[in-house]
Amino acid sequence: MTHVAVRVGIVGGGQLGRMLLLAGPPLQISCTTLDPAAGSPAAQVGRAIVGAYDDHDRLAELAAAVDVVTYEFENVPVEAARFVETLRPVFPPPEALEAAQDRLSEKQLFEGVGLEVPPYAPVDSLASLTEGLERIGTPAVLKSRRMGYDGKGQAAIHDAALGEDAWRSIGEVPALLEAFVKFDREVSIVAVRGRDGTFASYPLVENHHRDGILRLTLAPAPGTNRALQGVAERHARTVMDSLGYVGVLAIELFQVGDRLLANEMAPRVHNSGHWTDVGAETSQFENHLRAIAGLPLGSTEPVGVSAMVNLIGTMPYRDAVLAIDGAHLHDYGKEPRPGRKLGHVTVRADDAEILESRLTRMQALVDG
Ligand code: AMP
Question: Measured in angstroms, how far is the CA atom of residue 182 from the centroid of ligand 1?
Fold first, then answer.
């Protein structure tokens, strides 16, 4: 018997679009991406339309060529997603995109469904910042409500007297003041929900950032007990159910003892889920495609233990990376630039001890 081919449109052609696209062919799912750049990472490996995200002609061209549309980054204009929705189903729902684009709506969504969040105050003027600092105290972090990612549009406030500097440094735009959380570690949960409401979650992972950019993910997060995993899964599930979500969602959390405070969510496949490509029964990319295509979800069980190292700014020698047992390289085909994510390596092993020795060798290539 032949399978019905499913055609998926992906708004965005970065590395996430590229990895989604690559997961399709074994399931007879063919993807077309839309990106403003002609040589985008996704365009190098599959069909692509070149156009701006808010260009209705190009969006309509994409919609006409596919059965269902998704997106691979959260700054796709909500208006564009709503326009496409008049032509084809769009998953995850544009409501999820809308909530994730505004840190205040995101916090309100989390609180509304019962997730714990760091103390915060909306800020839209110097006076409201002063009020917020009185209530929340220092240290605190001032974050622009919109277009913030990888630590951009943020300013730490260690002394209330320096609030004005922080307000100016983020450009005096609508913002959120958050208490600085003295977390034990940063973790994230990547989960997937199908069109029929079925839910599956990957294990919690431990994330290490430098300069606001993810550097290393350990999967599963070492030392996680079932109770903590259960809390994270319930968080993901309630957020997804409340949005009628379809596809993969990631929630970044601060762990403080046995509490998990929600920081932010990404309505898409996520960098902290890249390890699943080789370290889980089914990758986040395949599961996202399965979900939006209405196919059964695949097992999210880890296969051994993994460490994902982001390659930022420069690439290590390919031969040296591949000489490490259990190392899997993905080069996104981007021009090197300081601070740019150029690729990642997932190192997999059957136990933590072997993983550690492989990871040490890998990190020497990246840091050295
Ligand atoms: P974000 O863009 O919100 O993900 O923030 C980037 C990084 O800044 C996070 O991964 C944390 O390492 C740090 N950070 C953000 N918000 C807070 C907070 N309220 N308390 C402590 N660290 C934070």
Answer: 10
